[in-house]
Design goal:
Helix content: 55-70%
Shape: globular
Order of helices and strands: HHHEHEHHEHHH
Distance between the termini: 42 Å
Structural class: mainly alpha
Largest sheet: 3 strands, parallel
Length: about 180
């Protein structure tokens, strides 16, 4: 009896497919990514893949897009496809830049430019599932405030406030987009 070959998605689990992406892409931090896949709570495929895009260093606002933007987007899109997720969500960290005491008008202008550039990239590359959100659009949401408070309560006393914000972003986005 001849065995028919099943499509790749049926042969392997979503986690195995994601492990292959992690191992094949030199831009992905392999050890931490594999450790995360082996950790608790990884029992169902995600409905979305997230990346965060900063607008500044500690000393100054960025000009234009980061040089490694495609190095972030393309592996994330590969991961999204591997797990069958419905969306690739890019969070523009505009409110994070405000925490570094930059001029709010300059931050808003930079965020608008980044969002517009991401829209052009989405169109050019055919990334139909790409969703762009600005952190400032959800930071006042009661669900975000709850996530932030919960992360802060569980964090060590000396935890950096920026790291707490980043973890709260992940918690909120996971709850919102899956």
């Amino acid at each position: 009896m001849r065995r028919t070959r099943q499509p790749l998605r049926e042969q392997t689990s979503w986690a195995d497919a994601l492990r292959r992406v992690v191992l094949q892409d030199p831009l992905v931090e392999t050890r931490l990514s594999l450790d995360g896949l082996a950790g608790p709570g990884v029992d169902a495929p995600p409905r979305a893949v997230f990346i965060g895009l900063g607008l500044c260093s500690r000393a100054r606002l960025s000009r234009g897009l980061p040089m490694d933007l495609l190095g972030l987007l393309l592996p994330a899109e590969s991961a999204r496809r591997a797990v069958g997720a419905q969306a690739l969500v890019v969070m523009v960290a505009d409110s994070h830049a405000l925490s570094n005491h930059f001029n709010p008008d300059d931050v808003a202008r930079q965020a608008e430019q980044v969002v517009a550039a991401l829209a052009r990239i989405k169109q050019s590359l055919g990334l139909e599932t790409l969703t762009v959100v600005r952190a400032s659009d959800f930071n006042a949401d009661p669900d975000y405030e709850l996530a932030h408070r919960s992360v802060k309560e569980q964090a060590p006393a000396d935890a950096d406030s920026y790291v707490i914000r980043e973890v709260a972003d992940i918690v909120y986005l996971q709850r919102t987009y899956g």
